Structure formats: C-alpha cells, structure tokens
From TrEMBL:
Pfam families: SMC_ScpB
Transmembrane segments: none
Protein name stated in the entry: Segregation and condensation protein B
Top-level lineage group: Bacteria
Natural source organism: Eubacterium ruminantium
Signal sequence bounds: none
Keywords: Cell cycle, Cell division, Chromosome partition, Cytoplasm
GO process terms (BP): cell division; chromosome separation
C-alpha cells in the first residue's frame, strides 16, 4: 500500500487514492521526475516505459527525460541507488558497490558462479533466442540439460514459448536479470559474434566431453 503524506500546516485532507496528489505540484503541473521516482520505488521491479507514462499522464518521451534527469542526480556518491534501463523498461536498483552491505542486512543469495559451460550455453541462448535445448546441444555438440537447468535456477534464461513442431519443445530466451547482470540495456547492445566463435563453442564442448569420457 502506498501512503501519501499530507501537509501538516493545511487543514484540508488528501484522499489516499487521489492520484493527482502524487503527480501534481502546488501549481497543478505534472512533476514527472518525482512521480517516476515514486512509482519505481513503490513497484520495486522493472516497469514498461509506456505503462509509466500512462500512470503519470505524460508522454513516453517525458518519462525518458525524467529517467535521465534522475540518473544525473544519482551519479553522485551521496546516492546509493540508480535507475537502469532494460529494453523498454525502467527499474530502480541499488548501486553495485553496496551489494555486500545488503547481504549483511537482508537474506540476499550470494552471487552465482558462471562456469565456462554455463557461459557458453548462455551465450548461445542470448544470440540464438528463442532457441530449444536440442538446438543448443546441436551447436555445442554435447548434452546441455544441466547447464540449462542451472541458468533457469539463476533466472538468467526462461521459457518464452513452444516451438510449433512435434513434441512442442520449449523455447528459451534471456531474462531482465540477464541484462542487469551483464550491465546492458537491451539485446542490441550485445557484441557481434562471428560464426567462427560458435564453432569454437562446439570444439571446446567436444573436448570437454572427451575429457569426461577418458576420466
């Protein structure tokens, strides 16, 4: 529940559900910067820019401008938060430098460890999505069930649909957590990977499989 504080010097009460009390200043003008900050703080997760604009009553471009204005303020070391952009969404987050402090206060899991196998599998999903597990295995040349399950557990990939084919195999894609973890705003920011690199993945996977069999 979101509570709106009233002016203690004013005898007029403010309706708890009066949206204008949230986004309008004393002159009746929309304070997009303050409204955006309040909404992202209250929601606590990534929200589409269009939805934020509809909620505040402004254009998406106004939300973009407010986002940039807020982050200029948050660039100061006096602030422990920042807003990140995930494709067409915005989210209010704690700065990375304070992660260890959060662990001391709340029950936040330790950072996960990404092995070479997990990174290779994640890279294939990122560049080939939506992709089935069979397609991943065809690229790597070995079974990837454990790697896929681990990446799902880490919430770096997720089910995004079903392939229209016999058996309706699951299609996998990356998540907002993937973007957050690697510090990118959208999939368009991913570096270009050559076909030779994909072949390197396949060769390394085959070498790993060979070593496993020998041992």
């Amino acid at each position: 529940m979101v509570f709106i504080m009233s002016d203690t010097n004013n005898n007029d009460s403010i309706d708890l559900y009066d949206e204008s009390a949230i986004v309008n200043d004393a002159f009746g003008n929309i304070n997009c910067v303050g409204a955006l900050e309040a909404l992202l703080f209250a929601v606590g997760e990534a929200v589409e820019i269009n939805k934020l604009a509809d909620s505040i009553g402004v254009k998406p471009k106004d939300v973009e401008n407010a986002y940039e204005e807020l982050n200029k303020r948050y660039d100061s070391d006096d602030y422990g938060i920042r807003i990140i952009k995930l494709d067409d969404k915005l989210q209010l987050c704690t700065k990375n430098m304070y992660y260890d402090k959060l662990i001391n206060l709340v029950n936040i899991p330790k950072k996960y460890i990404l092995t070479d196998v997990l990174l290779e599998t994640l890279s294939i999903v990122a560049y080939k999505q939506p992709v089935t597990r069979l397609e991943i295995e065809q690229i790597r040349g070995v079974s990837c069930q454990h790697a896929v399950n681990k990446l799902i557990e880490y919430n770096l990939i997720t089910e995004v649909g079903r392939l229209d084919a016999p058996g309706k195999p699951i299609l996998f894609g990356t998540t907002d957590d993937f973007l957050r973890s690697f510090g990118i705003s959208s999939m368009e920011d991913l570096p270009v990977v050559s076909s030779d690199k994909i072949e390197d993945f396949r060769r390394q996977a085959m070498e790993e499989a060979s070593l496993t069999i020998e041992t």
